[in-house]
Design a protein that fits this description.
Distance between the termini: 22 Å
Helix content: 40-55%
Structural class: mainly alpha
Strand order of the largest sheet: 1-2
Strand content: 5-15%
Oligomer: single chain
Length: about 220
């Protein structure tokens, strides 16, 4: 069993938002080359070594989050649409934004705080760079073979049957568009995190209760 590097293998990028340009110097989640026993990656947590007020993303986050200091799915969708992070591709659907939050919603509040907000933008930029790399003709979609290559490039080692299931789930008439591609990346990461936390021996095996399984998977 091989577990992934969660980014797309791209470490240097810029986060583009309205009136805001940030050079991100920290490594993306999942780009650590050191793999732990069981095939799990060395997963570097996003650094929070400086006060939030000194972070140039903090001001933008406070505007998006509003008075409650957290971002829900609708606020996230508006934020991502206005930020232009999807570029020339279609904006993210509300459902994709819901599972983005679920991926990082470790306390099951249905919202994300500032640290999760930063982590999400890092992951989205890596996935976008990965998608652009395989969408060489700029058609706005990738096909089955390219999707399989993208999944492998992120470090997943999945069976042919599993890959076929994934491609069928996220393709439309044989094409996987950017929104569906990101939704697939989000779910792969979230489900892998869910399983990994229960794989105490880090060998690719886990035991969990039915209720635990439903709680973890139905939220995504």
């Amino acid at each position: 069993m091989a577990y992934p590097r969660y980014g797309g293998g791209f470490e240097d990028f810029e986060v583009h938002m309205p009136g805001l340009q940030i050079e991100v110097e920290e490594p993306l989640p999942g780009t650590d080359p050191h793999v732990l026993p069981g095939g799990y990656p060395g997963y570097p947590a996003f650094s929070d070594s400086y006060p939030s007020a000194s972070d140039p993303m903090w001001t933008y986050f406070t505007v998006v989050a509003g008075q409650d200091g957290e971002v829900d799915a609708e606020e996230l969708q508006r934020c991502l649409t206005r930020s232009g992070i999807s570029g020339t591709y279609s904006p993210f659907s509300l459902e994709t934004c819901r599972i983005m939050i679920a991926m990082l919603d470790r306390d099951y509040t249905g919202k994300m705080g500032f640290d999760e907000f930063k982590e999400l933008f890092a992951a989205l930029n890596a996935w976008k760079q990965n998608f652009i790399a395989i969408d060489q003709d700029r058609s706005g979609y990738v096909e089955h073979r390219e999707m399989r290559q993208a999944i492998a490039a992120m470090g997943y080692r999945l069976s042919s049957q599993t890959l076929t299931t994934i491609v069928k789930r996220y393709s439309k008439n044989g094409r996987i568009f950017f929104d569906d591609y990101v939704a697939c990346c989000v779910k792969l990461r979230a489900l892998t995190d869910f399983f990994r936390r229960r794989d105490h021996s880090q060998q690719g095996f886990a035991n969990f209760l039915y209720d635990d399984f439903l709680q973890g998977t139905m939220a995504i």
